[in-house]
């Protein structure tokens, strides 16, 4: 066992979390760039989110790097950065085998989750995700064979079983159809299913992880963005009205990576490296690569470069750092030190894109056709590291002080929700 | 005298600068967001800038905060942040008089400039700016009554005199007409005039400061942006061909602050504060305010809030920090500590906008009509802090190490150009 359970709290990854005496819901609003929240609040189209900011707590915080979905979801449920749990991207280049491996398939997480800890302490916990790949990672120690919790995805809701997911498909759906995986409704299904679990008393702590389908496709203020925010806002209100204290963070922001004419602004690092050092000397891994490729053509603001040939690593790093469009090119050690990454999965050089630039491997290797002429909007760099952090209840004095003096991260949300909203006398 | 001149160097604001043995030009490419350079390099439309990056040095660095024109130009010529020289915006609220004062009119700079130091050491120095207000600040100790250097603006080129500017209007123009102050040509005039000074031997060190007219109006890849970059690139090439070592930085980046429908995304802090605390209790200063208001309607990503009424400062700070659209709301002390600002000109609360958001005072108080329906593109926040940093010559080993290990700023450019390109034996 990797967490300690005491009478009133659990201890997970060097933090203490009080056991809840009332319901809590943490929402990971995938790709919810702060610009969406700002615009919605200014135009008054998200009254419940605005009320959270006014009456509870609101701040702009950092996501874990790289600003991708899986590293951040796992960081949030662990309350700790990728260095601790090992998930630093979707795909990872295994030096030993020379193969690209989906990180969430590469074995168990390197750290226990808060969700599993709470479940072991007797709290009714449910994790609901949009995508099934992510559900598998978050279910560790929580749901499945002999475990007490619930963990399922909207994507595979209909085929869920009590044995594997802690709940059967028909119970999840309660008559609601399962939406298409490329739709705004997939995220709304997650929230609706969470609300049913809360209302029926089947869960006291909810982790609800949405999809960034809408944000990849539409800028703030677009009718589609407005409609989605309104729909999420309604459901956030319903969770609060049902008695839950709600925390909302995003896994990453979202930036338009297109030029004035709408074409994507892509720096193909594989091509540059091949031209400089010869083909086969280096390998560029895009850790945003995802079975849901239609969102972004596997183009984001962060890549890892592995040096296969006999090249001076620092020479390659310096070459990459001088390329316009590159914000930072860091050695493996420096990337891990500055951004809390796990060493064993880091590239020889980690490359963070400049603002407005997507990093790719080779021209022609990315499924740009999937964008169907839409502007490329994506994430991964420091430009998408700032994310909203909302809590529906006021913070106690200790956490107000913490917020005013420390750099907060999205993975502090369980700490703030479970510990920061307890009244001072407790 | 506030700098020390020795045989081979000057000492200004705690840094040593070697006297040049060949010509040098430092260009402040106003509003040159890294996304313009990245795009131009990727599409190959700026061959001379690309050659600088490949054969010399290129990095993404930080500007001084706030990411505005005057604080950064002065920081660059001082080689030091606003805390040292006192220019932390265009306008400043004088607590003693209750008036808003243009900072560059508020008395001499709080620090000497590298330009004046070089001129005193006998180097032929010329500063050429697009705007005249900025020229006045940069001319301190350099040009005018009894001083040896040259300092003039493109805006007022035709009325320049030897007595005040170190050169007469007709000599500056050499037959070239003075362009409109709202035109791309104003910046090109700066570069052309600098080139003439270099070729004629009238200047050995040039500081050439452009205008961000094009970048406020056009995104990367727009035909107007491309045309401007090509024109600047030609002139950078001409300076290099004429024998100059060239350094290029920007004073700040540029971000689209509009919604999907093209309307500006503005958070009116004055209105919010009035609604919360009552009118007249607080005063919001937009230090981007500028006689060149047509660029941006005095809307940017940074404002200072002064508390006039009997309000708890930290309560106001906490209120502002919870507003969606605010990235950071910092106490005066914290702003000065984190971003090297001068205390006497800081607000009681400094507010940095979130990505994609402009901060304003009151609805109706900003000249939005001047935008004439164009998208609002502006700067001031951390989203515009990253700027390109280019040097046309390779760096020596010490400066390569510096670049690999320290956070560089645009105000390191004179250090890198004058000291970093000296051969190691020197």
From TrEMBL, chains A, B:
According to the UniProt entry, the coiled-coil residues are none
Name of a matching Pfam family: Phosphodiest
**UniProt GO MF annotations:** phosphonoacetate hydrolase activity
- Gene3D superfamilies given for it? Alkaline Phosphatase, subunit A, Domain 2, Phosphonoacetate Hydrolase
Protein's UniProt keywords contain Transmembrane: no
Highest taxon in the source lineage: Bacteria
UniProt cross-references to CDD domains, sorted A to Z: Enpp
**Does the entry feature the keyword Hydrolase, yes or no?**
yes
Tell me which UniProt keywords the record has, alphabetically: Hydrolase
The record ties this protein, via InterPro entries, to: Alkaline_phosphatase_core_sf, Phosphodiest/P_Trfase, Phosphonoacetate_hydro, Phosphonoacetate_hydro_insert
Q: Which PANTHER family match?
A: BIS(5'-ADENOSYL)-TRIPHOSPHATASE, ECTONUCLEOTIDE PYROPHOSPHATASE/PHOSPHODIESTERASE
Q: Which NCBIfam families match?
A: hydr_PhnA
What is the name attached to this protein's record?
Answer: Phosphonoacetate hydrolase
Native organism is: Bosea thiooxidans
Q: What is the lineage of its organism?
A: Bacteria, Pseudomonadati, Pseudomonadota, Alphaproteobacteria, Hyphomicrobiales
């Amino acid at each position: 066992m990797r967490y300690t359970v005491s009478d009133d709290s659990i201890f997970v990854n060097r933090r203490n979390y009080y056991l809840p005496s009332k319901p809590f819901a943490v929402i990971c609003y995938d790709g919810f760039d702060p610009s969406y929240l700002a615009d919605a609040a200014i135009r008054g189209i998200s009254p419940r989110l605005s009320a959270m900011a006014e009456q509870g707590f609101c701040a702009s915080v950092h996501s874990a790097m790289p600003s991708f979905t899986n590293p951040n979801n796992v960081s949030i449920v662990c309350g700790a950065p990728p260095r601790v749990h090992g998930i630093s991207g979707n795909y990872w280049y295994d030096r030993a085998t020379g193969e690209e491996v989906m990180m969430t398939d590469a074995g168990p997480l390197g750290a226990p989750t808060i969700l599993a800890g709470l479940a072991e302490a007797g709290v009714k916990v449910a994790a609901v995700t949009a995508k099934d790949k992510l559900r598998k990672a978050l279910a560790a120690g929580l749901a499945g064979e002999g475990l007490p919790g619930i963990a399922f995805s909207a994507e595979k809701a209909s085929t869920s079983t009590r044995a594997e997911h802690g709940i059967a498909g028909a119970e999840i759906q309660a008559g609601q159809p399962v939406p298409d995986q490329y739709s705004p409704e997939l995220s709304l299904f997650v929230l609706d299913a969470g609300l049913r679990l809360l209302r029926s008393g089947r869960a006291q702590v909810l982790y609800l992880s949405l999809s960034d389908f809408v944000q990849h496709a539409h800028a703030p203020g677009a009718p589609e963005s407005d409609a989605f925010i309104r729909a999420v806002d309604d459901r956030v209100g319903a969770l609060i009205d049902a008695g839950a204290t709600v925390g909302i963070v995003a896994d990453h922001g979202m930036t338009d990576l297109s030029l004035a004419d709408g074409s994507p602004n892509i720096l193909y690092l594989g091509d540059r490296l091949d031209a400089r050092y010869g083909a086969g000397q280096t390998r560029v891994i895009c850790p945003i690569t995802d079975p849901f490729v239609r969102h972004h053509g596997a183009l984001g603001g962060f890549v890892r470069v592995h040096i296969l040939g006999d090249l001076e690593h620092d020479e390659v790093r310096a070459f990459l750092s001088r390329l316009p469009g590159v914000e930072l090119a860091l050695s493996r050690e420096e990337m891990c030190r500055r951004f809390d990454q796990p060493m064993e999965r880091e590239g020889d050089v980690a490359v963070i894109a400049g603002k407005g630039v997507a990093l790719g491997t080779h021209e022609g290797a990315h499924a740009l056709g999937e964008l169907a002429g839409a502007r490329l909007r994506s994430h991964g760099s420091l430009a998408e590291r700032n994310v909203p952090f909302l809590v529906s209840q006021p913070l106690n004095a200790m956490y107000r002080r913490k917020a005013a003096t420390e750099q907060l991260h999205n993975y502090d949300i369980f700490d703030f929700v479970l510990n920061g909203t307890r009244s001072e006398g407790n």
